[in-house]
Every structure is written in structure tokens, then in C-alpha cells.
């Protein structure tokens, strides 16, 4: 990240020139790629695997910008560059043609990132939309070959990304080999920062929050990503200090607290209802 970045020139395209008139036939599985090695790719075989990839990728992008390329089963392709809760989408190939996500035009400048070859690039803040919107758009893209109506696309795309349209899933896999079918064996897990202290280091092993998470885990309601467990415990501890007793007494507060846990960074899965959470809170006191 220390090299001088190069701004990506935009290429204007008439939508009629780049829109495919027919949708390609779906074949095989969608593909996600976040680097150039064999371990930097994963085929999406089950619906939950895409959300697993996206959520973990978002965690990694909290420290520095990250780029991911995603192909649908019809070889539609989109590039996403994520930094914290900002995401720029660049549709390279789709039934609706190409384009960049349209963010707030008042946001000037940009941030530095790198492509998969290590070349520095600058991503315009005006191309960025909120991660929650981008995440839904990427899921829609994999399912339908387009980002959906919640994301406005401009009629232009950085020329460096436009050339990525020459590479479909077959050529990508041919260059690096078939990726592992086991998500836990990909490099994405190794990219998560592990410098944070564990919950034992922080002395959190006997707190109400730790016992609640442990109880929910034992009942199969929650999966917490290990390196970020201490972060989850700290966030939940703060919420319990303010709302824990009320959540036990009021189902509306418990429902709200459950929704907070669903969105919490480091929580990979949370299936408990407000009622389930009330039981866990009561037993963990």
C-alpha cells in the first residue's frame, strides 16, 4: 500500500452497445476470487456459502481495502472493492451491460487499494455505496446476473476493469487450478487479522456476555468467528450493561437485542429469536 496509486480512468459506454440481448445459460457454480493463487478462490455451491464469503470478506476489509471478483453461473461478472462500510461495485459483464455503482457525487477524492496483481489503484468515493446495500446487490447479482434496482449504475467503468471481461470462470480456473470445495481451507480465513487479544487475554471468560454466547453456542443458535470472539463479547457486554435486565423482562427489548447481535461484526450466524435470547440471558446470569 506504499506505492503511488494510479487513478482508474473511466470509459463511457452507451448502454445499447454493451447490453446483451439474451441471458446466457447457467452452467456450473458461481465463483468468487480475491487473489491470484488457487486458495484465493471458491465456488458457491450452497446459498449460505455466498453470505459466508461476503461477511468474512467484509471483516477483512475493516483493516485495509480489499477487492473481490464474482461470477454468476451465467458468467456475468462484478468487481467489488470494499473498505470498512464503503463498497464500490464495477459490473464488468451482465445482462444489463456494464457500469459503476453511483454513490454520493458530493464525496470528492478516493481511497487507495490494490488489484489482484498488486498494482495500486484509486477508488473514487463517489463510486461507493453502503456495504449493506452492496452486499444485497452482490447476492442478487449471483442469482440473477444483475445488481438489482437498489443500486444505480453509471454508464461508465474504469478501463482496467473493463478488460476483465475477457476472462470467464473457465479461463480463471484453468490458470490456477480447481479451488478447494471446503470454504475453511481457502486463504480467506487466513487473511482475518489475528492480532486482537482473545477473550481469555481480556479476562472475559466469566462475564455475563461470555456466558450468554457460550449458552447460545451450545444450543446451536450462534456461530462466532474465533479471532473476533473477544470483540463480540465486548460489544455484547456493553449492550447487556444498558439493556440486559430490560431484555429479560420485555420481549420487545429482547427482539431488538437479537437484531443487534445479527448485525454484529464477528457473528457469522445468529438464529435465536428474542424468546430464545431471554432464556439464554436468564440462565447465564
Structure description:
The protein is an alpha+beta fold. The chain has two domains: 6-191, no CATH class; 208-284, no CATH class. 35% of the residues lie in helices and 20% in strands. Helix 7 crosses helix 9. It is elongated, with a radius of gyration of 21 Å. 36% of the residues are buried.
Rg calc: 21 Å
Cα-to-Cα separation, first versus last residue: 47 Å
Instruction: Tell me the major beta sheet.
Output: 7 strands, antiparallel
Series of secondary-structure elements, N-terminal to C-terminal: EEHEEHEEEEEEEHEHHHEHHEH
Shape designation? elongated
Chain-averaged pLDDT: 85
Number of domains: 2
Alpha plus pi helix count: 9
Strands, count:
14
Helix content: 25-40%
- The amount of beta strand, in percent, is 15-25%
Low-confidence stretches: 1-6, 11-19, 195-205
Q: SS-based structural class? A: alpha+beta
Question: What attributes characterize this protein structure?
Answer:
285 residues; alpha+beta; seven-stranded antiparallel sheet; three-stranded mixed sheet; disordered N terminus
Topology:
Blueprint: E1 6-7, E2 10-12, H1 15-18, E3 31-33, E4 41-43, H2 47-60, E5 66-71, E6 77-83, E7 86-93, E8 99-100, E9 110-114, E10 120-124, E11 128-130, H3 131-144, E12 156-158, H4 159-162, H5 169-176, H6 208-218, E13 222-224, H7 229-249, H8 251-263, E14 267-270, H9 274-284
Parallel strand pairs: 1-10
Antiparallel strand pairs: 2-12, 3-4, 3-5, 5-6, 6-7, 7-8, 7-11, 9-10, 13-14
Helix pairs in contact: 6-7, 6-9, 7-8, 7-9, 8-9
Short description:
The protein is of the alpha+beta class and 285 residues long.
Amino acid at each position: 500500500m506504499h506505492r503511488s496509486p494510479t487513478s482508474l480512468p473511466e470509459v463511457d459506454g452507451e448502454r445499447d452497445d454493451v447490453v446483451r440481448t439474451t441471458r446466457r445459460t447457467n452452467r456450473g457454480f458461481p465463483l468468487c476470487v480475491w487473489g491470484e493463487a488457487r486458495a484465493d478462490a471458491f465456488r458457491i455451491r450452497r446459498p449460505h456459502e455466498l453470505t459466508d464469503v461476503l461477511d468474512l470478506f467484509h471483516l477483512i476489509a475493516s483493516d485495509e481495502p480489499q477487492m473481490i471478483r464474482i461470477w454468476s453461473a451465467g458468467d456475468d461478472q462484478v468487481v467489488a472493492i470494499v473498505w470498512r462500510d464503503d463498497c464500490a461495485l464495477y459490473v464488468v459483464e451482465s445482462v444489463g451491460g456494464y457500469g459503476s455503482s453511483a454513490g454520493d457525487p458530493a464525496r470528492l477524492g478516493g481511497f487507495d487499494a490494490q488489484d489482484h496483481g498488486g498494482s495500486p489503484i484509486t477508488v473514487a468515493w463517489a463510486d461507493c455505496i453502503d456495504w449493506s446495500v452492496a452486499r444485497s446487490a452482490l447476492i442478487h447479482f449471483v442469482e440473477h446476473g444483475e445488481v438489482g434496482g437498489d443500486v444505480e449504475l453509471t454508464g461508465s467503468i474504469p478501463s482496467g476493469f473493463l478488460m476483465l471481461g475477457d476472462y470467464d470462470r473457465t479461463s480463471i480456473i484453468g490458470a490456477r487450478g480447481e479451488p478447494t470445495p471446503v470454504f475453511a481451507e481457502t486463504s480467506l480465513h487466513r487473511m482475518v487479522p489475528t492480532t486482537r487479544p482473545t477473550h481469555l487475554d481480556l479476562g472475559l471468560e466469566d462475564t455475563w456476555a461470555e456466558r450468554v454466547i457460550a449458552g447460545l453456542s451450545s444450543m446451536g443458535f450462534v456461530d462466532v468467528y474465533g479471532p473476533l470472539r473477544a470483540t463480540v463479547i465486548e460489544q455484547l457486554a456493553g449492550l447487556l450493561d444498558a439493556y440486559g435486565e430490560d431484555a429479560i423482562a420485555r420481549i420487545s427489548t429482547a427482539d431488538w437485542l437479537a437484531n443487534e447481535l445479527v448485525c454484529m461484526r464477528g457473528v457469522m450466524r445468529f438464529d435465536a429469536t428474542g424468546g430464545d435470547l431471554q432464556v439464554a440471558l436468564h440462565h447465564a446470569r
